[in-house]
Amino acid sequence: MEFYTTISILSSDFSEVKKTLREAEEAGAAMIHWDVMDGCFVPNLTFGAKFIDDCRKHTGLIFDTHLMITSPQTKVAPFLNSSDIVTFHYEAIPAGAENLIKEIHLAGKKVGISINPSTDPVVLHPYLTKLDFVLLMAVEPGRGGQKLNENVYERLKILTEMRRQANALFSITVDGGVDGNNATALRQSGADGVVLGTSFVNAHDKKKLIETVSVI
Ligand code: DX5
Ligand code: ZN
Fold first, then answer.
1. Residue ranges with strand state E in 59-183
2. Which pTM does this prediction carry?
3. Which residues contact 137 (CB under 8 A, 6 or more apart)?
4. Which pLDDT tens digit goes with each residue over 31-55?
5. Which of 71, 112, 118, 141 is most buried, most CB within 10 Å of its CB?
6. Which of 5, 8, 178 gets mutated to test ligand 1 (max ligand atoms within 8 A of its CB)?
């Protein structure tokens, strides 16, 4: 898979979501990144599965759903309709994620686990060969527009080495604070793709931003 960008709508005007979806498609993004927040796992509350379902008919882009919710194992079902990738947080289900991974795969979807900047990547060891994605947070989850935490570069190196040693095949997406200035360094440190949120919404030339991010 070539280096991919997945567009987070979190910092956009939700009442104009169709426009944002069109802009992402026209700019050459591969995916739409849906930041689902339940007000418990993170203080913010965004949207549920119906919002994503209603948007499904407006774009052919891959739907990459990021569940920042508590007890994802009990709430995942509605998100299996329209999502192509469902990512939950290790911190929300520190034990027994195997069943949730199986459930998402049985629904024919790809599965990811996300870890916060302060969570040691080593916790992912039991799951490495079962995952399609690891979503490496470069900000504390819950808000867009934050500054990238520089520890992500070291964490990328650790995670890519863990993947090599396990002969695992998952892709690594970096999420939070990514823009045209740090994307190349992230890619050179081992990222396979990045989430663009505020930098995309604010970009004057969105196509150019994605081209910049996608070219080493
Ligand atoms: C934060 C979300 C991120 C965020 C990315 O909790 O998971 O996807 O929206 O937005 P920027 O790119 O603005 O940091
Ligand atoms: Zn996200």
1. 62-68, 85-89, 110-115, 133-137, 171-175
2. 0.98
3. 114, 115, 116, 117, 175, 176
4. 999 999 999 999 999 999 999 999 9
5. 112
6. 8
